[in-house]
Each structure stands twice: as C-alpha cells, then as structure tokens.
Amino acid sequence: MKVPIKTTNEKFYRQLLELLKPFPPINACTPSELDVLGHLLYYNDFYIDISLPMRDKIIFDYDTMIAICNKLNMNEYIYRNILTQLRKKSIVDKKSLKFRPYIKDKNNYSISFIFSIDNGE
Q1: pTM here?
Q2: Measured between alpha carbons, how far is 46 from 75 in angstroms, rounded to an integer?
Q3: pLDDT tens-digit profile of 44-67?
Q4: Other CB atoms closer than 10 Å to residue 50's CB: what's the count?
C-alpha cells in the first residue's frame, strides 16, 4: 500500500517523526521534543553539502537555536531543557544528531513495515 503525503521541506521531518512515533526511541519523545528534533533534522538537511563536523557546529550553534526557538515560539530555557531530554534518550549527543542514520534522502524516503504474526498466542 502506498500513501502519498504532501509536505514541505520544513514540515517533512516533523511529519516523519510522527509516523515513527510508535517505535523506539521516538516513542519516548514528547510533542515538543519531536518539534525540536524535526527542526534539527531539517537544518541537517539544509546544510547537507557541508562536512559533517562543520554541519554539527552549525546545527547546534546559538543562531540556529534562536531560529528554532522563534519558529517554535519557545524560549531558550525550554529549548535547552528539550535538548537535555533528547540527550538522555540517546537521540542527540552533546553536539551531534544520533538519529541522522535513519534518514538518508528525503526526496526518495519510504518506510516499509514487515509484520510477523504469531498465531500461537
């Protein structure tokens, strides 16, 4: 089954996280944590042509934090607390995204579910 989803570059990652919400480690995240993570992933994609170490510096830079806070209408204190929670859940490292390997190319992204049903119950 294919379900087409219309989206924008900025909304894509948040929508993807919502689809992944039932699965660890995303299932432990609050909506605010998913909002912040979605924006971090968006900036990771926005700067995809920059080397990974430099990209991480930009993603976790103060100016990027302010841009995300403004977009999400939250203050720095809340943003920093959310980052701390994402670190505790091993989704974000000190200054890098651990969730990055799950998302390769947003233009050709697909998710497949393979169910293994145990009839023995």
Answers
A1: 0.86
A2: 23
A3: 989 989 999 999 999 999 999 999
A4: 14
